[in-house]
From TrEMBL:
GO terms for cellular component: plasma membrane. Residues 355-385, 395-424 form the 4Fe-4S ferredoxin-type domain. The complex is composed of six subunits: RnfA, RnfB, RnfC, RnfD, RnfE and RnfG. [4Fe-4S] cluster 1 binds at residues 365, 368, 371, 414. Binds 2 [4Fe-4S] clusters per subunit. One of its GO terms (molecular function) is 4 iron, 4 sulfur cluster binding. The gene is rnfC. This is Ion-translocating oxidoreductase complex subunit C. It comes from Pseudoleptotrichia goodfellowii F0264. PROSITE patterns: 4FE4S_FER_1, 4FE4S_FER_2. It is a peripheral membrane protein. The keyword Cytoplasm does not apply. Keywords: 4Fe-4S, Cell membrane, Electron transport, Iron, Iron-sulfur, Membrane, Metal-binding, Repeat, Translocase, Transport.
Protein backbone atom coordinates (compact mmCIF):
# COMPACT_ATOMS: atom_id res chain seq x y z
CA UNK A 1 0.00 0.00 0.00
CA UNK A 2 1.35 3.38 -0.94
CA UNK A 3 0.62 6.08 1.52
CA UNK A 4 -1.85 7.68 3.82
CA UNK A 5 -3.73 10.61 2.39
CA UNK A 6 -2.59 12.48 -0.63
CA UNK A 7 -1.97 16.02 0.54
CA UNK A 8 -3.18 17.30 -2.84
CA UNK A 9 -6.62 15.80 -2.36
CA UNK A 10 -8.21 18.80 -0.69
CA UNK A 11 -11.90 19.24 -1.36
CA UNK A 12 -14.01 22.27 -0.51
CA UNK A 13 -15.48 20.94 2.70
CA UNK A 14 -18.73 22.97 2.81
CA UNK A 15 -18.99 21.98 6.48
CA UNK A 16 -19.12 25.59 7.69
CA UNK A 17 -22.69 25.74 6.36
CA UNK A 18 -24.09 23.37 9.03
CA UNK A 19 -21.32 23.00 11.57
CA UNK A 20 -22.45 25.60 14.07
CA UNK A 21 -26.17 25.01 13.70
CA UNK A 22 -27.99 23.72 16.76
CA UNK A 23 -29.32 20.21 16.60
CA UNK A 24 -32.87 20.19 15.21
CA UNK A 25 -35.49 17.47 15.65
CA UNK A 26 -37.22 16.14 12.52
CA UNK A 27 -40.97 15.86 13.05
CA UNK A 28 -42.12 12.23 12.90
CA UNK A 29 -44.12 10.95 9.92
CA UNK A 30 -47.39 9.02 10.08
CA UNK A 31 -45.81 5.96 8.44
CA UNK A 32 -42.43 4.45 9.24
CA UNK A 33 -40.62 2.02 6.93
CA UNK A 34 -38.21 0.06 9.13
CA UNK A 35 -35.96 -2.28 7.11
CA UNK A 36 -34.99 -5.55 8.78
CA UNK A 37 -31.53 -5.15 7.32
CA UNK A 38 -29.75 -1.98 8.39
CA UNK A 39 -26.45 -3.75 8.90
CA UNK A 40 -23.79 -5.91 7.29
CA UNK A 41 -24.62 -9.59 7.71
CA UNK A 42 -27.71 -11.70 7.77
CA UNK A 43 -31.07 -9.90 7.67
CA UNK A 44 -32.92 -10.02 11.00
CA UNK A 45 -36.13 -12.02 11.13
CA UNK A 46 -39.44 -10.26 11.82
CA UNK A 47 -41.03 -11.07 15.18
CA UNK A 48 -44.17 -8.99 14.60
CA UNK A 49 -46.99 -9.40 12.11
CA UNK A 50 -49.61 -7.30 10.37
CA UNK A 51 -52.05 -5.76 12.87
CA UNK A 52 -49.75 -6.09 15.92
CA UNK A 53 -49.50 -3.12 18.27
CA UNK A 54 -45.85 -2.26 18.92
CA UNK A 55 -44.39 -0.04 21.60
CA UNK A 56 -41.58 2.41 21.04
CA UNK A 57 -38.21 0.63 21.50
CA UNK A 58 -39.85 -2.81 21.15
CA UNK A 59 -37.74 -5.33 19.29
CA UNK A 60 -39.35 -6.13 15.92
CA UNK A 61 -36.43 -7.90 14.20
CA UNK A 62 -34.40 -10.71 15.81
CA UNK A 63 -30.74 -11.48 15.11
CA UNK A 64 -30.13 -14.42 12.75
CA UNK A 65 -26.74 -16.08 12.51
CA UNK A 66 -23.37 -14.89 13.82
CA UNK A 67 -23.27 -11.49 12.13
CA UNK A 68 -26.59 -9.69 12.29
CA UNK A 69 -28.31 -6.96 14.31
CA UNK A 70 -31.60 -6.56 16.14
CA UNK A 71 -34.12 -3.98 14.88
CA UNK A 72 -36.49 -1.96 17.10
CA UNK A 73 -39.60 0.12 16.58
CA UNK A 74 -38.84 3.86 16.63
CA UNK A 75 -42.38 4.77 17.73
CA UNK A 76 -45.54 3.15 19.06
CA UNK A 77 -48.26 2.19 16.63
CA UNK A 78 -49.72 -0.60 14.55
CA UNK A 79 -47.88 -2.80 12.08
CA UNK A 80 -49.59 -1.90 8.80
CA UNK A 81 -47.87 -4.64 6.81
CA UNK A 82 -44.55 -6.35 6.12
CA UNK A 83 -43.42 -5.31 2.67
CA UNK A 84 -40.47 -5.35 0.31
CA UNK A 85 -39.31 -1.73 0.29
CA UNK A 86 -36.36 -0.04 -1.45
CA UNK A 87 -33.22 1.00 0.39
CA UNK A 88 -30.43 3.34 -0.71
CA UNK A 89 -28.74 1.00 -3.18
CA UNK A 90 -32.03 0.39 -4.99
CA UNK A 91 -32.46 -3.16 -3.66
CA UNK A 92 -35.70 -4.13 -2.01
CA UNK A 93 -35.49 -5.33 1.59
CA UNK A 94 -38.08 -6.85 3.90
CA UNK A 95 -39.46 -3.89 5.84
CA UNK A 96 -41.91 -3.40 8.72
CA UNK A 97 -44.34 -0.58 7.84
CA UNK A 98 -45.74 0.94 11.05
CA UNK A 99 -48.55 3.48 11.42
CA UNK A 100 -47.49 5.95 14.10
CA UNK A 101 -50.10 6.58 16.82
CA UNK A 102 -48.06 9.54 18.10
CA UNK A 103 -48.53 8.29 21.69
CA UNK A 104 -44.91 7.15 22.20
CA UNK A 105 -45.93 4.34 24.54
CA UNK A 106 -42.56 2.88 25.29
CA UNK A 107 -41.13 -0.33 26.66
CA UNK A 108 -39.80 -0.09 30.22
CA UNK A 109 -36.11 0.30 29.59
CA UNK A 110 -33.46 -0.62 32.16
CA UNK A 111 -31.43 2.45 33.06
CA UNK A 112 -28.00 2.22 34.69
CA UNK A 113 -25.63 4.64 36.40
CA UNK A 114 -22.05 5.13 35.17
CA UNK A 115 -20.88 4.41 38.71
CA UNK A 116 -22.27 0.88 38.39
CA UNK A 117 -20.11 0.03 35.35
CA UNK A 118 -17.64 -1.95 37.48
CA UNK A 119 -20.47 -4.27 38.58
CA UNK A 120 -21.08 -5.51 35.03
CA UNK A 121 -19.09 -8.23 33.30
CA UNK A 122 -17.85 -7.84 29.73
CA UNK A 123 -20.41 -10.41 28.61
CA UNK A 124 -23.27 -8.46 30.22
CA UNK A 125 -22.18 -5.22 28.53
CA UNK A 126 -21.82 -7.00 25.17
CA UNK A 127 -25.33 -8.40 25.60
CA UNK A 128 -26.73 -4.90 26.18
CA UNK A 129 -25.02 -3.70 22.97
CA UNK A 130 -26.27 -6.75 21.11
CA UNK A 131 -29.86 -6.37 22.30
CA UNK A 132 -29.81 -2.65 21.42
CA UNK A 133 -29.16 -3.25 17.73
CA UNK A 134 -26.07 -1.04 17.61
CA UNK A 135 -24.08 -1.06 14.37
CA UNK A 136 -21.23 1.06 13.02
CA UNK A 137 -22.76 4.44 12.27
CA UNK A 138 -19.95 5.71 10.06
CA UNK A 139 -21.48 3.92 7.09
CA UNK A 140 -20.05 0.41 7.49
CA UNK A 141 -22.98 -0.76 9.65
CA UNK A 142 -21.03 -3.71 11.05
CA UNK A 143 -22.74 -5.12 14.18
CA UNK A 144 -20.95 -3.54 17.13
CA UNK A 145 -21.27 -6.47 19.56
CA UNK A 146 -19.37 -8.63 17.07
CA UNK A 147 -16.60 -6.02 16.69
CA UNK A 148 -16.17 -5.59 20.46
CA UNK A 149 -16.26 -9.32 21.24
CA UNK A 150 -12.49 -9.68 20.88
CA UNK A 151 -11.92 -12.76 23.05
CA UNK A 152 -8.30 -12.85 24.25
CA UNK A 153 -6.93 -10.54 21.54
CA UNK A 154 -4.86 -7.61 22.79
CA UNK A 155 -5.83 -4.09 21.71
CA UNK A 156 -2.95 -1.63 21.57
CA UNK A 157 -4.98 1.28 20.25
CA UNK A 158 -8.68 2.08 20.36
CA UNK A 159 -9.41 4.81 17.82
CA UNK A 160 -12.48 7.01 17.86
CA UNK A 161 -13.08 8.11 14.30
CA UNK A 162 -14.22 11.72 14.47
CA UNK A 163 -12.72 12.46 11.08
CA UNK A 164 -15.78 12.97 8.95
CA UNK A 165 -13.88 13.60 5.75
CA UNK A 166 -16.78 13.67 3.25
CA UNK A 167 -17.69 17.26 2.31
CA UNK A 168 -20.89 18.77 3.77
CA UNK A 169 -21.29 16.24 6.62
CA UNK A 170 -21.21 17.50 10.21
CA UNK A 171 -23.25 14.80 11.97
CA UNK A 172 -20.25 13.39 13.88
CA UNK A 173 -19.07 16.89 14.79
CA UNK A 174 -22.54 17.59 16.19
CA UNK A 175 -22.43 14.44 18.33
CA UNK A 176 -18.96 15.29 19.73
CA UNK A 177 -19.99 18.90 20.36
CA UNK A 178 -23.53 18.44 21.72
CA UNK A 179 -22.95 15.30 23.77
CA UNK A 180 -19.30 15.49 24.76
CA UNK A 181 -19.85 14.03 28.23
CA UNK A 182 -22.02 11.17 26.99
CA UNK A 183 -19.45 10.48 24.26
CA UNK A 184 -16.68 10.19 26.87
CA UNK A 185 -18.83 7.93 29.06
CA UNK A 186 -19.44 5.78 25.97
CA UNK A 187 -15.66 5.55 25.50
CA UNK A 188 -15.28 4.45 29.13
CA UNK A 189 -17.85 1.66 28.63
CA UNK A 190 -16.10 0.41 25.47
CA UNK A 191 -12.67 0.64 27.14
CA UNK A 192 -13.93 -1.84 29.72
CA UNK A 193 -14.58 -4.30 26.85
CA UNK A 194 -11.37 -3.72 24.90
CA UNK A 195 -8.93 -2.81 27.67
CA UNK A 196 -6.80 -0.84 25.16
CA UNK A 197 -3.28 0.28 26.01
CA UNK A 198 -4.10 3.61 24.40
CA UNK A 199 -7.26 5.46 23.29
CA UNK A 200 -7.03 8.12 20.58
CA UNK A 201 -9.76 10.44 19.28
CA UNK A 202 -9.05 11.51 15.69
CA UNK A 203 -10.58 14.83 14.64
CA UNK A 204 -10.00 17.04 11.64
CA UNK A 205 -7.97 20.24 11.70
CA UNK A 206 -11.02 22.34 10.95
CA UNK A 207 -12.63 21.05 14.17
CA UNK A 208 -9.62 21.89 16.30
CA UNK A 209 -11.77 23.88 18.76
CA UNK A 210 -12.99 20.52 20.12
CA UNK A 211 -9.57 19.88 21.66
CA UNK A 212 -10.21 22.34 24.47
CA UNK A 213 -13.66 20.92 25.12
CA UNK A 214 -12.34 17.34 25.13
CA UNK A 215 -9.50 18.27 27.49
CA UNK A 216 -11.94 19.88 29.91
CA UNK A 217 -14.29 16.86 29.91
CA UNK A 218 -11.46 14.32 30.14
CA UNK A 219 -10.09 16.15 33.22
CA UNK A 220 -13.55 16.23 34.79
CA UNK A 221 -14.03 12.51 34.18
CA UNK A 222 -10.50 11.57 35.12
CA UNK A 223 -9.87 10.18 31.61
CA UNK A 224 -6.68 12.09 30.94
CA UNK A 225 -5.10 9.01 29.32
CA UNK A 226 -7.06 9.76 26.13
CA UNK A 227 -5.01 11.27 23.31
CA UNK A 228 -6.49 13.67 20.79
CA UNK A 229 -5.00 13.52 17.32
CA UNK A 230 -5.69 16.48 15.05
CA UNK A 231 -5.60 15.21 11.49
CA UNK A 232 -5.16 17.14 8.26
CA UNK A 233 -8.45 18.02 6.60
CA UNK A 234 -8.00 15.88 3.53
CA UNK A 235 -9.94 13.23 1.70
CA UNK A 236 -10.34 10.27 2.49
CA UNK A 237 -8.73 10.76 5.90
CA UNK A 238 -11.73 9.24 7.71
CA UNK A 239 -11.48 5.93 5.88
CA UNK A 240 -10.63 3.27 8.46
CA UNK A 241 -7.37 2.06 6.94
CA UNK A 242 -6.09 5.60 6.32
CA UNK A 243 -6.93 6.60 9.86
CA UNK A 244 -5.09 3.60 11.32
CA UNK A 245 -2.05 4.35 9.16
CA UNK A 246 -2.03 8.02 10.21
CA UNK A 247 -2.48 7.39 13.93
CA UNK A 248 -0.52 4.17 14.49
CA UNK A 249 1.72 3.90 11.43
CA UNK A 250 0.35 0.40 10.82
CA UNK A 251 -0.43 -0.55 7.23
CA UNK A 252 -3.31 -2.99 7.09
CA UNK A 253 -4.45 -4.45 3.80
CA UNK A 254 -8.13 -4.17 2.91
CA UNK A 255 -9.96 -7.32 3.94
CA UNK A 256 -7.85 -7.88 7.08
CA UNK A 257 -9.38 -7.25 10.47
CA UNK A 258 -7.73 -4.34 12.32
CA UNK A 259 -8.16 -6.16 15.64
CA UNK A 260 -5.66 -8.77 14.39
CA UNK A 261 -3.17 -5.89 14.29
CA UNK A 262 -4.10 -4.65 17.77
CA UNK A 263 -6.40 -1.86 16.59
CA UNK A 264 -10.13 -1.27 16.95
CA UNK A 265 -11.78 1.75 15.27
CA UNK A 266 -15.24 3.03 16.11
CA UNK A 267 -17.28 5.88 14.76
CA UNK A 268 -18.10 8.51 17.41
CA UNK A 269 -21.86 8.06 16.90
CA UNK A 270 -21.56 4.35 17.58
CA UNK A 271 -19.91 5.01 20.93
CA UNK A 272 -22.57 7.57 21.84
CA UNK A 273 -25.17 4.87 21.04
CA UNK A 274 -23.35 2.51 23.44
CA UNK A 275 -23.86 5.18 26.11
CA UNK A 276 -27.57 5.50 25.20
CA UNK A 277 -28.02 1.74 25.42
CA UNK A 278 -26.11 1.07 28.62
CA UNK A 279 -27.04 4.19 30.62
CA UNK A 280 -30.41 5.25 29.19
CA UNK A 281 -31.55 1.75 28.19
CA UNK A 282 -32.40 2.97 24.66
CA UNK A 283 -31.85 0.85 21.57
CA UNK A 284 -30.60 2.47 18.36
CA UNK A 285 -33.74 4.00 16.80
CA UNK A 286 -32.57 7.48 15.81
CA UNK A 287 -29.44 9.26 14.65
CA UNK A 288 -28.04 12.65 13.66
CA UNK A 289 -28.32 13.30 9.92
CA UNK A 290 -26.82 16.34 8.16
CA UNK A 291 -29.20 17.90 5.66
CA UNK A 292 -27.38 20.22 3.32
CA UNK A 293 -26.69 21.20 -0.29
CA UNK A 294 -27.39 24.25 -2.41
CA UNK A 295 -30.90 23.07 -3.30
CA UNK A 296 -32.34 23.35 0.21
CA UNK A 297 -32.79 26.32 2.56
CA UNK A 298 -33.45 24.09 5.58
CA UNK A 299 -29.87 23.01 6.16
CA UNK A 300 -28.83 21.65 9.51
CA UNK A 301 -28.13 18.63 11.67
CA UNK A 302 -31.34 16.80 12.45
CA UNK A 303 -32.17 14.02 14.88
CA UNK A 304 -34.20 11.66 12.69
CA UNK A 305 -35.74 8.34 13.63
CA UNK A 306 -34.77 5.31 11.58
CA UNK A 307 -37.51 4.30 9.20
CA UNK A 308 -38.44 7.90 8.35
CA UNK A 309 -38.96 7.92 4.57
CA UNK A 310 -37.33 10.42 2.23
CA UNK A 311 -40.77 11.61 1.02
CA UNK A 312 -41.61 12.87 4.53
CA UNK A 313 -38.28 14.70 4.87
CA UNK A 314 -38.85 16.40 1.51
CA UNK A 315 -42.33 17.44 2.62
CA UNK A 316 -40.84 19.05 5.73
CA UNK A 317 -37.85 20.84 4.24
CA UNK A 318 -39.22 21.55 0.75
CA UNK A 319 -36.05 21.46 -1.37
CA UNK A 320 -35.98 22.67 -4.98
CA UNK A 321 -37.70 20.21 -7.30
CA UNK A 322 -34.69 19.57 -9.54
CA UNK A 323 -32.31 18.67 -6.67
CA UNK A 324 -30.10 15.63 -7.04
CA UNK A 325 -30.65 13.74 -3.76
CA UNK A 326 -27.70 11.93 -2.24
CA UNK A 327 -27.80 9.71 0.86
CA UNK A 328 -24.38 9.98 2.50
CA UNK A 329 -21.64 12.32 1.32
CA UNK A 330 -21.05 13.55 -2.23
CA UNK A 331 -18.00 11.30 -2.70
CA UNK A 332 -19.23 7.91 -1.53
CA UNK A 333 -22.97 8.48 -1.17
CA UNK A 334 -25.66 7.17 -3.49
CA UNK A 335 -28.26 9.03 -5.49
CA UNK A 336 -31.81 8.24 -4.36
CA UNK A 337 -34.98 8.85 -6.35
CA UNK A 338 -37.55 6.67 -4.55
CA UNK A 339 -39.49 8.59 -1.89
CA UNK A 340 -39.98 5.44 0.23
CA UNK A 341 -36.25 4.99 0.90
CA UNK A 342 -35.89 5.46 4.68
CA UNK A 343 -33.21 6.83 6.98
CA UNK A 344 -31.39 3.89 8.53
CA UNK A 345 -28.73 3.44 11.23
CA UNK A 346 -25.91 4.28 8.81
CA UNK A 347 -27.43 7.40 7.19
CA UNK A 348 -25.05 10.25 7.99
CA UNK A 349 -26.40 12.83 5.56
CA UNK A 350 -29.00 13.67 2.94
CA UNK A 351 -27.77 16.20 0.40
CA UNK A 352 -29.81 18.19 -2.08
CA UNK A 353 -27.34 19.12 -4.79
CA UNK A 354 -27.49 20.81 -8.15
CA UNK A 355 -26.40 19.05 -11.32
CA UNK A 356 -27.56 15.87 -12.93
CA UNK A 357 -24.93 13.16 -13.03
CA UNK A 358 -26.43 11.83 -16.27
CA UNK A 359 -25.63 15.12 -18.06
CA UNK A 360 -21.94 15.31 -17.15
CA UNK A 361 -19.77 15.55 -20.24
CA UNK A 362 -17.29 12.70 -20.19
CA UNK A 363 -14.19 12.46 -22.35
CA UNK A 364 -11.51 9.91 -23.04
CA UNK A 365 -8.60 9.32 -20.71
CA UNK A 366 -5.65 11.60 -21.50
CA UNK A 367 -3.20 9.56 -19.38
CA UNK A 368 -2.47 12.50 -17.09
CA UNK A 369 -2.07 10.24 -14.03
CA UNK A 370 -3.98 12.53 -11.65
CA UNK A 371 -6.19 9.62 -10.58
CA UNK A 372 -3.12 7.59 -9.63
CA UNK A 373 -1.78 10.48 -7.55
CA UNK A 374 -5.14 10.87 -5.82
CA UNK A 375 -5.63 7.20 -4.92
CA UNK A 376 -4.93 6.60 -1.21
CA UNK A 377 -4.49 2.86 -1.84
CA UNK A 378 -1.77 3.23 -4.48
CA UNK A 379 -3.94 1.77 -7.27
CA UNK A 380 -4.23 2.56 -10.99
CA UNK A 381 -7.86 3.65 -11.43
CA UNK A 382 -7.61 4.44 -15.15
CA UNK A 383 -6.60 0.81 -15.78
CA UNK A 384 -9.73 -0.41 -13.99
CA UNK A 385 -11.85 1.60 -16.42
CA UNK A 386 -9.88 0.40 -19.44
CA UNK A 387 -9.90 -3.29 -18.51
CA UNK A 388 -13.57 -3.23 -17.53
CA UNK A 389 -14.51 -1.50 -20.83
CA UNK A 390 -12.53 -4.10 -22.77
CA UNK A 391 -14.06 -7.00 -20.85
CA UNK A 392 -10.66 -8.13 -19.50
CA UNK A 393 -12.07 -8.91 -16.07
CA UNK A 394 -9.30 -11.23 -14.89
CA UNK A 395 -6.86 -8.33 -15.29
CA UNK A 396 -8.89 -6.46 -12.67
CA UNK A 397 -7.78 -9.03 -10.10
CA UNK A 398 -4.12 -8.55 -11.02
CA UNK A 399 -4.61 -4.78 -10.76
CA UNK A 400 -5.86 -5.27 -7.16
CA UNK A 401 -9.37 -3.98 -7.74
CA UNK A 402 -10.33 -5.69 -4.46
CA UNK A 403 -8.15 -3.18 -2.60
CA UNK A 404 -10.24 -0.24 -3.79
CA UNK A 405 -12.22 1.41 -0.99
CA UNK A 406 -14.53 3.21 -3.48
CA UNK A 407 -13.64 6.59 -2.02
CA UNK A 408 -14.17 8.40 -5.34
CA UNK A 409 -10.97 10.47 -5.05
CA UNK A 410 -9.80 9.28 -8.48
CA UNK A 411 -12.91 10.37 -10.36
CA UNK A 412 -13.02 13.66 -8.45
CA UNK A 413 -9.52 14.54 -9.66
CA UNK A 414 -10.02 13.38 -13.26
CA UNK A 415 -10.06 16.29 -15.75
CA UNK A 416 -11.82 14.15 -18.37
CA UNK A 417 -14.53 12.95 -15.96
CA UNK A 418 -13.83 9.35 -16.98
CA UNK A 419 -16.52 7.19 -15.26
CA UNK A 420 -14.05 5.48 -12.95
CA UNK A 421 -16.39 4.71 -10.06
CA UNK A 422 -19.02 3.15 -12.31
CA UNK A 423 -16.35 0.88 -13.82
CA UNK A 424 -14.98 0.04 -10.37
CA UNK A 425 -18.38 -0.86 -8.90
CA UNK A 426 -19.51 -2.82 -11.95
CA UNK A 427 -16.09 -4.48 -12.21
CA UNK A 428 -16.34 -5.63 -8.60
CA UNK A 429 -19.83 -6.98 -9.30
CA UNK A 430 -18.44 -8.92 -12.27
CA UNK A 431 -15.65 -10.40 -10.13
CA UNK A 432 -18.20 -11.44 -7.49
CA UNK A 433 -20.23 -13.28 -10.13
CA UNK A 434 -17.14 -14.94 -11.61
CA UNK A 435 -15.99 -16.05 -8.15
CA UNK A 436 -19.43 -17.46 -7.36
CA UNK A 437 -19.22 -19.52 -10.56
CA UNK A 438 -15.66 -20.62 -9.72
CA UNK A 439 -14.21 -18.81 -12.76
CA UNK A 440 -11.56 -16.98 -10.69
CA UNK A 441 -10.22 -17.10 -7.15
S1 LIG B 1 -12.13 4.85 -5.56
FE1 LIG B 1 -10.64 3.17 -5.43
S2 LIG B 1 -9.28 3.49 -7.15
FE2 LIG B 1 -10.42 5.42 -6.86
S3 LIG B 1 -9.09 6.62 -5.51
FE3 LIG B 1 -10.50 5.53 -4.16
S4 LIG B 1 -9.40 3.65 -3.62
FE4 LIG B 1 -8.35 4.51 -5.40
S1 LIG C 1 -7.23 11.23 -14.16
FE1 LIG C 1 -8.68 10.70 -15.80
S2 LIG C 1 -7.66 11.36 -17.65
FE2 LIG C 1 -6.09 11.32 -16.07
S3 LIG C 1 -5.19 9.23 -16.18
FE3 LIG C 1 -6.82 9.12 -14.72
S4 LIG C 1 -8.62 8.47 -15.89
FE4 LIG C 1 -7.12 9.22 -17.37
Amino acid sequence: MKNIVNEKMKIDSMKHVTKKMNLAIMEDPEYFYVPLSQHIGQISSEIVKKGDYVKQYQKIGEIQGNVSAAVHSPISGVVEEIIENPVVNGNKVKTVKIRNDFKYNSENMERRAMESLSEYTKREILDVIKESGIVGEGGAQFPTYVKYDIGDKVVDTFILNGSECEPYLTADYTIMNEWTEQFFDGIKIVEKLLNPKKTVIGIEEENRELVERFSEVSRKKNMTNIEICVLPTAYPQGSELQLIKTITGKEIKKGNLPVNYGVVVSNVGTVKSVYDAFIEGKPLIERVVTISGEKTEEKGNYLIKTGTPLGHIIEKINPEKDAKIIFGGPMMGEEVKDMNVPVIKGTSGILFLSGNIDNIERNNCISCGYCVDACPMGLMPMKFEEMYRKGKYKKLVKLNLDMCIECGACEYSCPSRVPLIKSIKEGKGMLREMRAEGGIK
